[in-house]
Amino acid sequence: MPANLTPEYLAAEARYRAAKTDKERLAALQEMLSTIPKHKGTEKLQAEIKRKIAQLRTAPKKRGPSRLALDSIEREGAGQVALVGLPNSGKSSLLARLTNARPEIADYPFSTVKPLPGMMEFEDIQIQLVDLPPLARGYTEGWVYSHIRNADLIMVVLDLAVEDPQRDLQEVLALLEEERIRLAREASPELEGGMLVKAGLLCGTKLDLPGAREGLARLSSRDGGQGLPLVAVSARSGEGLEELKRAIFVALRIIRVYTKEPGKKPDLERPYTLPKGSTILDLAREIHQEFATRLRYALLWGSGKFEGQRVPRDHEIQDGDIVELHI
Prior knowledge:
- It is a single chain.
- By secondary structure, this protein is an alpha/beta fold.
- α1 (about 5-20) packs antiparallel against α2 and α2 runs antiparallel to α3.
- The chain has 11 helices and 12 strands.
- Strands 1, 2, 3, 4, 5, 6 and 7 form a 7-stranded mixed β-sheet that branches. Strands 9-8-12-10-11 form a 5-stranded mixed β-sheet.
- A hairpin with a 7-residue loop joins β10 (about 295-300) and β11 (about 310).
């Protein structure tokens, strides 16, 4: 008998999978149990939920150091990018080449055992990359998927020199979908079919090795990359790294906006980063709530019809715009 799970149940299940504390997990499980359709087709699932609730209620209180280092990474920069891939895909080498982080790099699998962040410079902003332990059926702990859910962008790292990188991609996507995570060019604010839709980007590595360009051709073929943006790089030679940086910036769907005071030169060293589609009013809120309350209009340099154009509060700003707020 089909389960016919309701939207309320699927939403509670998504909260359970994204929960960071036992208290949050317990609340989500209780809601799952109360909203699940009660019939023969869901008996096993009901029993599993009850078992998990019992485990959480009887679990001993933890003492000593917490697993905060595993459960959360303090967000920094203009966006957070999770590096996801199978064992030996080249994630750590990529992190070491793009950031100031110093991960352990080894030929054996599972050398990454905890999340490691690093800051990547892109022009005048910094973007946080987080190297996560590899995905592997039966080995990957739940907290890894919590990081993936919380990141702004999921970058799937694929070894182009393996026999079939497209098969590796299918394995990564399957593991994510088992955790109700789906990748697309753009994230969705709503669950789609019970799936959390995250923005995704593909990065093919080891382009300098034999067979890598053939692997790239297979991934680049029609539907080979599942419609996701694809960039090929070599961490060893540096080929493609600048292209990858820009692809990450574009995939994050953010813009940089510069401000100036009346009668003064603009500050071109410290841009504000905002989601694509933001308005003059959103920029004012980012600076200070009082600006948003008292804002009358703004002058715009960059994407306007002419330099210093007067624009209203709801005008959509573009990457690279210079804005002078008037209150």
